[in-house]
Structure formats: structure tokens, C-alpha cells
Design brief:
Elements lengths: L2 E5 L2 E4 L4 E8 L7 E7 L6 E6 L6 E2 L8 E6 L4 E6 L8 E8 L12 E2 L3 E6 L1
Parallel strand pairs: 2-11
Antiparallel strand pairs: 1-3, 3-8, 4-5, 4-9, 5-6, 7-8, 9-10, 9-11
Length: 123
């Protein structure tokens, strides 16, 4: 099984940047698609970014496209989310997740989840 731990969240002003990290404890990290999701109070969990097992293919919804970048380092068993030009509407708890299938985009398709890290963007 996979254990995931996020870090790097915090408070930032609008227009600023944060880099989130996700450390994975798993023997074969490169076998998993990695995704980042976020959930704001009163809202459903939504996809932020997906990266395939080898890191070649990525997906972003329109809400973050051009501002967020997902990456991974399979040797270090780490996934990252670089967030630039942050907006107040980006405020949420951010979760990393792992899936054994190819680039799923819905939360129920991910088998493993981190505990979440809070990102707060002030205006």
C-alpha cells in the first residue's frame, strides 16, 4: 500500500506562489499515477492536476491551467505542485493522491490519499 504525506501549504497573498510536496512511502512509486486535489469549505473535492507514472503526460483543469505545474521525482518518490499567481479562490485543503490506473480525474478513482495541507490565499 501507499502512504502519502503533503507539506508546503501556508498563507500567501494573492499573486504569490507556493510549492507543495508529497512524499510517498511505497516500494514502486513509479507504478502510480499521481494527482493533486483540493477541497474548499462547503465544496466538493476537485481535481487540480494529474501526472502519469513516467511524468511525461499531465492534465490541468481550466481553473488552474497556466498557473499550476505538477511534477514528480520517481527516484525520490516525491510529487510536487508548483502554484503561481495564486488567487483567493485557490484557498482550500490540498491533497495528493495515488492511483494504479492511467491518469484518472475523479476522486473515487484514486486509491491512496495524503492527510492534506492547507493553502490560504489572502486578497
Amino acid at each position: 500500500q501507499v502512504q502519502l504525506v503533503e507539506s508546503g501549504g501556508g498563507l500567501v497573498q494573492a499573486g504569490g506562489s507556493l510549492r507543495l510536496s508529497c512524499a510517498a512511502s511505497v516500494r514502486t512509486f513509479s507504478s502510480y499515477t499521481m494527482g493533486w486535489f483540493r477541497q474548499a469549505p462547503g465544496k466538493e473535492r476537485e481535481l487540480v492536476a494529474v501526472i502519469t507514472t513516467n511524468g511525461i503526460n499531465t492534465y490541468y483543469p481550466d481553473s488552474v491551467k497556466g498557473r499550476f505545474t505538477i511534477s514528480r521525482d520517481n527516484a525520490k518518490k516525491m510529487a510536487y505542485l508548483q502554484m503561481n499567481s495564486l488567487k483567493p479562490e485557490d484557498t482550500a485543503i490540498y491533497y495528493c493522491a495515488a492511483s494504479p490506473t492511467y491518469a484518472p480525474r475523479t476522486p473515487d478513482e484514486y486509491s491512496y490519499w495524503g492527510q492534506g495541507t492547507q493553502v490560504t490565499v489572502s486578497s
